[in-house]
Amino acid sequence: MSSVEEFRAEIRGWLAAHLTGEFAGLRGRGGPGREHEVFAERLAWERHMAAEGWTCVGWPEEYGGRGASLEQQVAFHEEYALADAPARVNHIGEQLLGPTLVAFGTAEQRARFLPPIVAAEELWCQGYSEPDAGSDLANVRTRAERDDTGAWVVTGQKTWTSLAHASQWCFVVARTAPGSSRHHGLSYLLVPLDQPGVEIRPITQLTGTSEFNEVFFDGARTRADHIVGAPGEGWRVAMATLGFERGVSTLGQQVGFRRELEAVIAWAKHNGAANDPLIRDRLARAWTGLETIRCNALRILDGAASGAPGPEASIGKIFWATWHRELGELAMDVSGAAGMLAAGEPYDLDDRQRLYLFSRSDTIYAGSNEIQRDIIAERVLGLPKESRP
Ligand SMILES: Cc1cc2nc3c(=O)[nH]c(=O)nc-3n(C[C@H](O)[C@H](O)[C@H](O)COP(=O)(O)OP(=O)(O)OC[C@H]3O[C@@H](n4cnc5c(N)ncnc54)[C@H](O)[C@@H]3O)c2cc1C
Prior knowledge:
Blueprint: H1 3-18, H2 39-51, H3 70-82, H4 91-104, H5 107-118, E1 124-127, E2 143-146, E3 152-162, E4 169-175, E5 186-192, E6 198-202, E7 212-222, E8 227-228, H6 234-246, H7 253-271, H8 277-301, H9 313-335, H10 351-359, H11 369-380
Parallel strand pairs: 1-4
Antiparallel strand pairs: 2-3, 3-7, 4-5, 5-8, 6-7
The protein binds flavin-adenine dinucleotide.
Flavin-adenine dinucleotide (FAD) is lined by residues 125-129, 134-136, 160-162, 212, 361, 364-365, 368, 370-371, 374, 386.
C-alpha cells in the first residue's frame, strides 16, 4: 500500500471512530452561509482533532504539522468531506497565516503564533479589504505608526472581515510609510483583537446571519516585533498569503462540490426536472466541468513546492468559482418555482437556495474573476499592464 493510501485509511478510520458520541451531531454542520451553526461545538471538535494531531497536516513537522505531501493533503480533505465532518473554524489561521509565517516569519514569530493555530486555541481573520480597497488592495488607507516604545498604533477601517467576531487575532495590511502610495510603504501586522482600540461590527446578510464584519481600529496597538517582513515589505507578504488562499487551501472544496452536484442530480430525478433535455445537458456539463477543475488543480499545485503557486493559480480560481456559481443557478432551475419560496422567519434556506446565494460570492472573494483575468493577462501572458490612475 502506498503512503497515500495508508494515510487515507488512517484519517478515514480516525474520522469514523471519532465523529461519534458528543461529535456525531456535527456532521454536515457549518460552512458558507452556515458559519453561525454550532460554532462552539465545532471549535471543541477542532481542538479534539488538534489533540490527536489532525490539524495543519500539510505543515512541516517541526511546526506541529504532519509534513503531509500534496497527495496526502488531497486525501485528507477528500476523506474529511466524505465523512461529512463539520466545517473547520480556523481555516484562515491554518491555510493562510500559518504558511505565510513559515515562509516569511521570524523564528520568534513561528514559536509564538504557530502552536496556538495547531491547537486551535487562537483563531485568525484577514484584514485586507477596506471600503475603498477591495480589488484595488494597494489603495489601503489604514495606517500604523510607532509610539515611543516602538509599538505599532493602528488606525483605520477594514470591511468584509470573515469571522472577525470569532477571532482573537487579525493580520492587517496597513500603511506604515507616511505619504507613500500604492503598494509601497505597506506593512503586514499581527494585531490582537481583544483590546479597547478595536470595534467589530457584524454585517447582517440578507439571510439574517452574519459571517463577516466591519473592523474599526482606533489607536489599536500591537508589539513592535509583530510585523511580518520588514516595514514597507507588506505587499510582498500579502500577495504570498493570497497565493496560499488560491492554492492548496482550495483542495478541500472539490469533494464538497461533488456532493453538491450529486444532490442537485438527485433532486432533478426526484422532481422530474431531469426529464428536461436542457437540464440534463447542463447536469452533464457540470459533471465534466468538475473533472476539469480537479485535473487543473492538481496540475497547478504539483510542483508548487512551497504550496503557494504562481499567477497560474488564477486560472484555477476562475474555473472553480464560475463552475460553482453556475451550479447554484442550475440548482435553482432544477428547483423551479419552489426555489422562490423560503420557509421560516428569519429565512430558513434549503440546500439549493443556500448554494445559489452563497456561490455568488465565489467569483468575488480572494480576487474577483475580472481581477484574475488581469493577473493572467499581465503576469502569465505578459500582455501590457492595465492603465491605472
Ligand atoms: C464571502 C466573502 C468573504 C470575504 N472575506 C474577506 C476577509 O476575510 N478579509 C478581507 O480582507 N476581505 C474579504 N472579502 C472581501 C473581498 O476580498 C472583496 O470583496 C474583493 O476583493 C472585491 O472587492 P470589493 O468588494 O471592494 O469590490 P470592487 O473592488 O469595488 O469591485 C467591484 C466590481 O468591479 C470589478 N473590478 C474592480 N477592479 C477592476 C479592474 N481593474 N478591472 C476589471 N474589473 C474590475 C470587480 O471585478 C467587481 O466586479 C470577502 C468577500 C466575500 C464576498
